[in-house]
Design goal:
Layout lengths: L2 H21 L5 E3 L2 E3 L8 H7 L21 E5 L4 E5 L5 H6 L9 H20 L2 E8 L9 H12 L5 E3 L11 E6 L2 E4 L18 E4 L8 E8 L12 E7 L5 E7 L2 E8 L6 E6 L6 E8 L3 E9 L3 E8 L13 H11 L1 E7 L2 H4 L7 H17 L4 E5 L9 H20 L3 E3 L1 H5 L4 H7 L14 H25 L1
Parallel strand pairs: 5-17, 5-18, 18-19, 19-20
Antiparallel strand pairs: 1-2, 3-4, 6-16, 7-10, 8-9, 9-16, 10-15, 11-14, 11-16, 12-13, 12-15
């Protein structure tokens, strides 16, 4: 057979065979002792795996990740399969963050909290401002905790400025501002200063008194400088206010900024509280307050804030077991709170009680409950949060037992008066947490195992905001 005819013959045979295979059924046929099966196209590795006997031919849908996950595993999502991929353990701070305790409160407190949230939501539409007074012992000095609370709430609800301060503060420099004075200034509080006339006390439970009789100059100066690294909101303000008690003394108050006088007031002879308020068209970084008097004058407070939004005021009372509201002049306290539209008060005390040697805290219980009752009677519409004592290390078991007793007093008293309680001890991690915080890098607590470092205070402040915003979210979801 010639080569051309041979090639055509082989091609014809292949065509017949291929056509025959195409006509074969999927399961094939048996011919004599042979079984002829229809060939299948080659599959890739993934298809062969899915088609193998015992495998399931289906696509796995994507799943939503939960808000919190187990520490050692995390779902890893693939296009068609879900496997578990190990991840690094949570950091110490992250493990605390996912277990932040909630605010504890009864229905009475929750009703007042709902009113607070409604007001926060309506501040911009009503063009109003409101204040939150944050009282505490040395744990809040330097605006360390409060600055986080202020910045977080101002980002959410608007507002600005550093809030309230006095010319003479226990710590004249904070993460937000620095205060410098010239002239004869005297801080007065529960312990009256010698050779000074009696002055009433307002929000600070004390005052800064300028006494020109002790100095040649009859002018006292208070300079406030906003820190360059302060949050942007704290450096934005359009209102300045001053509360003075001249005690029948005439004088002048002037405000200077940018190298010029921007406001001035003449204080007439009147033995009563005088409130001076000024609008400013720009936020100056440095403000000078000049007090021209011939007799002592008490400065009850200075405020730099925004006319719309929320302000959070840092009021540290070093060495105190609690703020003595009952020791203030009630009309003056109410007038200052009314001018500032105070709608929330935070009380964070307990370190000075825990540092004591007596195991009996009955005296503290009486003092604590008396102040809460005073607030409830005179400021029933204000939402009050008691922040429990933070952990500290001292005489081992004795210190921890005392902290537990103080926590119980604070929690029981707050809930009994229809107030909220937030467990800072639990938020830190419980027993011996202060040691772990001090050993963390960077350190979250100071070597005294009592006070938080700047980083630790910021962390605790963020935990408090997280807890408050959980209730706010539930409030919004229920509307």
């Amino acid at each position: 057979m010639k080569p051309l005819k041979s090639a055509l013959f082989l091609a014809a045979v292949l065509i017949v065979v291929q056509g025959t295979l195409l006509l074969l059924p999927r399961e094939g046929i048996s011919l004599f002792s042979m079984h002829i099966k229809k060939p299948m196209p080659e599959m890739n590795r993934k298809e062969r795996f899915l088609k193998e006997p015992g495998s399931v031919d289906m696509k796995v849908a994507r799943v939503a990740l939960p808000d919190t996950v187990h520490q050692d595993t995390l779902p890893f999502i693939h296009d068609s399969v879900v496997v578990k991929k190990p991840v690094a353990p949570l950091s110490f701070t992250d493990s605390l963050r996912i277990r932040v305790p909630r605010l504890e409160m009864n229905d009475t407190a929750r009703l007042v909290l709902s009113r607070l949230f409604r007001m926060l939501d309506s501040l911009h539409s009503r063009k109003e401002g409101m204040h939150i007074l944050y009282y505490g012992d040395s744990q809040i000095e330097g605006d360390r905790i409060t600055s986080v609370v202020r910045d977080s709430l101002q980002k959410r609800f608007g507002g600005g400025g550093p809030g309230l301060f006095l010319p003479v503060m226990t710590v004249p420099y904070t993460s937000t501002l620095r205060i410098e004075t010239s002239g004869s200034w005297i801080p007065v509080s529960e312990k009256r200063a010698a050779n000074l006339m009696e002055f009433p006390y307002g929000i600070f439970g004390g005052a800064s008194v300028f006494d020109p009789r002790r100095d040649i100059s009859v002018t006292g100066r208070c300079r406030v400088t906003l820190q360059p690294f302060a949050p942007a909101g704290a450096k934005k303000y359009n209102r300045i206010g001053l509360w003075l008690f001249p005690a029948g003394n005439e004088g002048k108050i002037s405000v200077h900024a940018g190298g010029k006088k921007i406001e001035e007031d003449t204080i007439r002879r009147a033995k009563k509280l005088v409130y001076c308020q000024y609008a400013v068209d720009q936020s100056f970084r440095k403000i000078d307050f000049l007090f021209g008097f011939h007799q002592p004058v008490a400065v009850e407070g200075i405020v730099m804030h925004d006319s719309v939004g929320v302000s959070v005021d840092n009021i540290p009372l070093r060495g105190r077991q609690l703020m003595s509201f009952s020791g203030c002049d009630l009309p003056l306290l109410q007038e200052m709170c009314r001018e500032l539209n105070v709608r929330m008060i935070v009380l964070q005390f307990g370190l000075n009680v825990a540092a004591g040697e007596k195991k009996d805290v009955s005296h503290y219980r009486k003092t604590f409950n008396r102040q809460l009752k005073y607030l409830k009677q005179n400021f029933p519409e204000v939402f009050v949060v008691v922040v429990g004592v933070t952990d500290m290390a001292g005489n081992g078991k004795d210190t921890d037992e005392r902290i537990q007793m103080i926590r119980d007093v604070q929690r029981t008293g707050a809930l009994a008066e229809g107030y909220a309680f937030w467990d800072a001890y639990k938020a830190m991690g419980g027993e011996n947490a202060i040691v772990r915080w001090a050993g963390h890098q960077p350190s979250l607590a100071r070597p005294d195992y009592a006070h938080l470092s700047y980083q630790g205070a910021q962390l605790l402040g963020s935990f408090f905001v997280v807890s408050l915003m959980k209730d706010y979210k539930e409030f919004r979801d229920d509307r």
